[in-house]
Amino acid sequence: MPTIFTKIANGQIPSWRVAQDENYYAFLDINPVVKGHVLVIPKRVEEDYIFNLPDEVYQGLWSFAAKVAKAIERAVPCKRVGVAVLGMEVPHTHIHLIPLNSEGDMDFRREKLKLSDEEFKAIAESIEAAFKEL
Description:
Layout: H1 4-9, E1 17-20, E2 24-28, E3 38-42, H2 55-75, E4 80-84, E5 95-100, H3 117-133
Helix pairs in contact: 2-3
């Protein structure tokens, strides 16, 4: 049975897409720790643990994530983009990219932001436009 992330990448469940290519998909986390919190996933490989990915998928995922991080830096005011791979929430490898202005921005225990659809849309469009410029 496909994971929720596969369904998102396939368009079966709506998401706030920020970038995609034939192999990878990036979208806004619906429970962000900060504005611009993005998840990056492989589209075709439903592997729970990132270190079990085939080498070419693993390398490609990080390369794609780096480009998405550069787009986030252009679109969201931040000092840098933090990276986390927890893999405990959904059994589908995913990389968290989080705009940082302080180390506290990376705290997953903090209360998640509640954003309006208009805020999600504006953030997603801004990051997607920056991605396309790279």
